[in-house]
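@channel sequence for tomorrow's demo:
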Amino acid sequence: MANAHTCEAPTANLQQVATGDRAILPAGAKTIPIYVMGKKYEVPETLTIMKAMEYAGFTFLRGCGCRGGICGACPTVYRKEGDYKLHFGLACQTVVEPNMYLAQLPFYPANRAVYDIEKIEPTPEAIHALYPELFRCVACNSCSKACPMGVEVLDYISALKQGDIAKAAKLSFDCIQCGLCASRCMGELPQYHIAQLARRMYGKFIMPRAEHMQKRAAEIDSGKYDALLDQLSGMSKDELEKLYKEREREPDMAAQGTWMPQDKQYL
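structure tokens (generated this afternoon):
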């Protein structure tokens, strides 16, 4: 089981100096109080939760990944002043608010079924066998309310209960595997793991293959690009830089779909 701590606590009397990704506090900028793991800190009001914590002196050991709202490593649960509801967001995207109480859940324990995607049957029954808890869903929709990406979690779970893998794969496409849905589930489902299996099944067995991809794969197998790759592999760094800078480029203002390069031999 993962360590519950997401970061190292700041040392006493830490000087407020920005280094790396930390924000520099402008002279006269307003600070606001927030509570991290129950302790009060004064941070600039315009920062994200992640940058505010770093400003306060925390050093992230886990629970910090892409910083762009994609990897799902920094799910955060928080309460707002005067609001009884729990709120959910990503620490790298959510801006701090006065007197917010927050805690991070970089890992939430949820069972993941073991399977071989090469051998599995692409059927609803296969998913049902691997995740029988799917039918423990009580349709409370707490999972959807907890999703920081706005994914309709209940809808894709319902689609899988009805046997529609393609629909579930499409509805769960924006899932970032943060696990907040599982943390709120009354039926104790690992929704994000179930959705990942549905997307893998859909991508490997169900989704129609693009004709241009099949054509390109056949060209690669035929050795069409071997000579070019050998040529590039034998170039020096300076030669590669020169080739890159002198390459034929699409004009910046070209209308979409109207430009084609002069040299089409590798298209």
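heads up for whoever presents: The first strand starts at residue 7 and ends at 8.
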